[in-house]
Amino acid sequence: LHFCLLLGISLAALLGNGLIITTVTCGQHLHTPMSFFLLNLALTDLGSICTTVPKAMHNSLWGTRHISYTGCAAQVFLLIFFMGAEYFLLTVMWYDCYVSICKPLHNGTLLGSRACAHMAAAAWATGFLYAVM
């Protein structure tokens, strides 16, 4: 029962995030800063799901609760990495909303494609640094 529940929930999340990624990538009118950050947020969500759910499904299917030390360390590292990147991406998305609402005339200069790429890369790098620490 738990295996089927985990499978259904994870497949729904994978399908939803996959649709977001496909839509933002293929839609020419969706090449905006918010859509770019939403794409990165969907990638962090996919990473978080793919980090924890497979082992939980394995344990549920076989009725065990065992995990190796290296497997646990890898799960903790990846989960902290994806969660850290997600938190910083949410912060960058908040900044995008702030600029769009409070400084609409400066939106193009403050949130150009290069600046968005730098902010997203900084969010991913910060997540990695959090995971290493």
UniProtKB/TrEMBL annotation:
One of its GO terms (biological process) is sensory perception of smell. PROSITE patterns: G_PROTEIN_RECEP_F1_2. The keyword Membrane applies. It is a multi-pass membrane protein. GO terms for molecular function: G protein-coupled receptor activity. Its main location: membrane. Keywords: Cell membrane, G-protein coupled receptor, Membrane, Olfaction, Receptor, Sensory transduction, Signal, Transducer, Transmembrane, Transmembrane helix. Residues 1-18 form the signal peptide. Gene3D superfamilies: Rhodopsin 7-helix transmembrane proteins. The chain crosses the membrane at residues 36-54, 66-90, 110-132. Residues 16-133 form the G-protein coupled receptors family 1 profile domain. It is found in: Cell membrane. GO terms for cellular component: plasma membrane. Coiled coil: none annotated. InterPro entries: GPCR_Rhodpsn, GPCR_Rhodpsn_7TM, Olfactory_GPCR. This is O14I1 protein. It comes from Chaetorhynchus papuensis (pygmy drongo).
